[in-house]
């Protein structure tokens, strides 16, 4: 069975500092990996995806993620955090584009 | 483009009552998903439709949950009878078949269900 793990329930970072939200995956076949963000009382919004190609994927709002096959990781990063980035972030993965499994989410809090 | 629409946004019912949720996906999206998101957890796929056919319903509690997608567009998800543990946000999502945005799921705002 496929699984996605987000080991940190919460990440705190000061505005202007770089941020990293961690994700590891276990899927069969070629991994299809995604990051979504969820603001209060809103649905999930797509940030970026890795299907194939360059290991560094650039997405919306200045976010990027690095696919690391050997470590089965897909960490979300941003060089300079903003207070408005504070939200709940979900990593999702599937094997070959089939059923998407989400992690439990990481609450990002960016403080002034 | 218009997003995924869901209604109602909120619903409070007593246990053992029935409830139905409606979803209208993005126009032209062949694939439609229903997820259950319990507080503090990630969304869990309940059922996936490709046009009006079911692709995956392995995690749908079929003794009480049902879903349909008539004519391959709108979809309804029903719970009958509801249990306390069904309290959650029910998310609908849709995705296109191919092109640059393949496999990218677009989510609606969700329906927050409270079962008392």
Structure description:
The complex is a heterodimer of chains A (112) and B (116). Chain A has no helices and 12 strands. The model of chain A has no long low-confidence stretch (mean pLDDT 93). Chain A has 112 residues and is mainly beta. Chain B is mostly beta strands and 116 residues long. Chain B has no helices and 11 strands. Chain B has strands spanning 5-7, 10-13, 19-24, 31-37, 44-50, 53-56, 65-68, 75-79, 88-95, 106-107, 111-115. In chain B, strands 2, 4, 5, 6, 9, 10 and 11 form a 7-stranded mixed beta sheet that branches. In chain B, strand 5 and strand 6 form a beta hairpin. The model of chain B has no long low-confidence stretch (mean pLDDT 92). Classes of the chains: A mainly beta (112), B mainly beta (116). The A-B interface holds A 4, 32, 34, 36, 41-46, 49, 51, 90, 92, 94, 97-105 and B 4, 33, 40-45, 48, 56, 91, 93, 102-110.
Distance between the termini of chain B: 37 Å
Structural class of chain A, please?
mainly beta
Summarize the amount of helix of chain A as a percent range: under 10%
The helix/strand class of chain B is mainly beta
Question: Main beta sheet of chain B: strand number and arrangement?
Answer: 7 strands, mixed
Radius of gyration of chain B: 14 Å
Q: Roughly how much helix do the residues of chain B carry, as a percent range?
A: under 10%
Order of helices and strands of chain B: EEEEEEEEEEE
Residue stretches of chain A low in confidence (pLDDT < 50, at least 5 long) are none
């Amino acid at each position: 069975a496929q699984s996605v793990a987000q080991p940190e329930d919460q990440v705190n970072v000061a505005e202007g500092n770089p941020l990293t939200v961690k994700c590891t995956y276990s899927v069969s076949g070629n991994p299809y990996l995604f990051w979504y963000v969820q603001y209060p009382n809103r649905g999930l919004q797509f940030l970026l995806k890795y299907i194939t190609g360059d290991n560094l994927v650039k997405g919306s709002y200045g976010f990027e993620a690095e696919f690391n096959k050997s470590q089965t990781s897909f960490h979300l990063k941003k060089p300079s955090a903003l207070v408005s980035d504070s939200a709940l972030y979900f990593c999702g993965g599937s094997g070959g584009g089939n059923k998407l499994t989400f992690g439990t989410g990481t609450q990002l809090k960016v403080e002034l | 483009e218009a997003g995924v629409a869901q209604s109602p946004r909120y619903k409070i019912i007593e246990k053992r009552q029935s409830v139905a949720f409606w979803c209208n996906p993005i126009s032209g999206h062949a694939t439609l998903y229903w997820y259950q998101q319990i507080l503090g957890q990630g969304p869990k796929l309940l059922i996936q439709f490709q046009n009006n056919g079911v692709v995956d319903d392995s995690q749908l509690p079929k003794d009480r949950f049902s879903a349909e997608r008539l004519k391959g567009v709108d979809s309804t998800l029903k719970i009958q009878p509801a249990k306390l543990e069904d309290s959650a946000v029910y998310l609908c999502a849709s995705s296109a078949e191919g092109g640059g945005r393949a496999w990218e799921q677009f989510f609606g705002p969700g329906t927050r269900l409270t079962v008392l």
